[in-house]
Fold this protein.
Amino acid sequence: MAPEQFPKPGAPEIAFLGRSNVGKSSLINALLGSKEAKVSSTPGRTRAINFFELADAPWGQKPGQRAQLIFVDLPGYGYAKISKSISAEWPKFIEPYVRERGTLALCVCLVDATIPPKASDAQLVEFLADVGRNFLVVGTKADRLSGNGRAKALAALSEAFGADRLLLVSSKTGAGMKELWAAIREAGAE
Ligand code: GDP
């Protein structure tokens, strides 16, 4: 998807990035409180960039008001079941958007908190830092962890990606959603 195919820049955009199967669609659905973002049943197959305008936003925007935020669902990367060549091509799909989009306010980097951090996640975070993007690392599927497991996961994520902006969430239980919304709203308001 080339930059000229992106929708006209409007409201601040919140981009969601992560390996296929990390729980990105589930998280977007949980944040929107609807089924607007299709949950992918075949991991790694969605390669388009999807833009979701939040018209009737969950934080009290009036119906009919212009979108205050746009969620951007970027294609998943690094899933073992997709071929190496597609994995290698992955940056081509997101790079023009992440590099050039003037209205991109925050990149939400999703990593599976239940498995050790992956090199591909570290590469993504490094890339975002290199291009100077505002980003937040969010560990998914926290409901699968015990209290001690959550502390360990936070320590592992913090060591792998840097400690300053880190959250654990669960789309299943809603844990961490308030904090994530707060970070999203803050970035959208800047
Ligand atoms: P995507 O490929 O990143 O969009 O991932 P999906 O949202 O399709 O989820 C991938 C798998 O992880 C599915 O089997 C989901 O049910 C599961 N999953 C997603 N979020 C959570 C979560 O918060 N907790 C648990 N336990 N499983 C989750």
